[in-house]
Write a structure and sequence with these properties.
314 residues; alpha/beta; Spore Coat Polysaccharide Biosynthesis Protein SpsA, Chain A; 2 domains; 9-stranded mixed sheet; 12 helices; 11 strands; globular
Length: 314
């Protein structure tokens, strides 16, 4: 079997059927199995999945250990040479899986392949990939340059740019991500200490350190609203916990503490100017703009995210 499509759900009853209908159309062009892992949803997600996709294998877990842990549970029972992770609120186009597979087989050094995210109206959504966090990119965040000049390569280097065709990228979004099974096993898959947000960046950076070169292809198209199982503030806390984790793990050793401090300072600066500054990554995270007070609230709960996932799991 070539592909194992893995979907992790949590309170996804309201939208997972659309995801599964799109997946069913897409798997017709490939040799694939579909595995749905539910993280102990308190609603009727499991029943909705079984009714909408009787052809899928359902793994109903008794605990919600997070997105990464759910993906690992799916990978443990998967038989494919390639693992394809799809968010339950994403809708893939019929050619998406075939496009991912074709790119992966033509570029075996990639190891990880993502697609092209579009909006519901068909416009390019830049969240298909992300730049690597660096001391410069975090300094730009700390000083507010990334907010003043959003999307500019010099001052906002982590933000993606418009592209066509195929290209190598630092970080592929986990909303639609193909990982070769041998690469997954080699680098250890998603780190289950990361509950949600940051697991895709951590995996891609570990794969790059092992010599692989992740890519994206515009032949694998998907729509992803994003964040449908998280409240605005809760999502931001998870997001910044992931950011702190990546800095503390992947910055040069002598700069990790400084990088974390710059991230913290950037949030403080925006909290202090919260009446004039938009919420963190509001437009680029694919959600309607949250309340500007989210910066102040994020700063108020900084103790919950500043240490990253490793601190929260210790």
């Amino acid at each position: 079997m070539k592909l194992s499509v893995i979907i992790v759900t949590y309170r996804s009853a309201g939208y997972v059927a659309r995801c599964l209908a799109a997946v069913e159309r897409a798997v017709k062009a490939t040799d694939a199995e579909v595995i749905v892992v539910d993280n102990n949803s308190p609603d009727d997600t499991v029943e909705v999945v079984r009714a909408a996709a009787p052809w899928a294998r359902v793994v109903a877990r008794g605990v919600n250990g997070g997105f990464a842990e759910g993906c690992v549970a799916g990978a443990e029972v998967a038989a494919g040479r390639y693992l394809v992770f799809v968010n339950p609120d994403a809708e893939v186009r019929p050619e998406a899986f075939a496009g991912l597979l074709e790119c992966a087989e033509r570029h075996p050094r990639a190891g990880i392949v993502g697609g092209r995210c579009i909006t519901e109206t068909g416009e390019n959504d830049p969240r298909s990939w992300w730049g690597r966090p660096t001391p410069w990119s975090v300094l730009c965040f700390a000083t507010g340059l990334s907010t003043v000049f959003p999307g500019r390569a010099l001052f906002d280097p982590e933000s993606p740019t418009t592209w066509t065709g195929e290209r190598r990228v630092p970080i592929v979004t986990g909303a639609l991500m193909l990982v070769a099974r041998d690469v997954w096993d080699e680098v250890g898959g998603f780190d289950t200490r990361i509950f949600m947000y940051g697991e895709d960046a951590d995996l891609c950076l570990r794969a790059r350190a092992a010599g692989h070169r992740p890519m994206v292809t515009d032949r694998a198209v998907f729509v992803h609203p994003g964040g449908m199982s998280s409240s605005s503030l809760n999502k931001l806390v998870l997001l910044f916990t992931g950011k702190a984790t990546v800095i503390r793990r992947h910055f040069p050793r002598g700069l990790r503490g400084l990088g974390a401090s710059m991230l913290l300072f950037g949030v403080w600066l925006r909290a202090a100017l919260s009446r004039r500054v938009a919420p963190p990554d509001a437009g680029r995270q694919g959600r309607p703009m949250a309340e500007r007070g989210d910066w102040a609230e994020l700063w108020a709960v900084r103790g919950t995210w500043r240490g990253g996932w490793d601190a929260r799991k210790s």
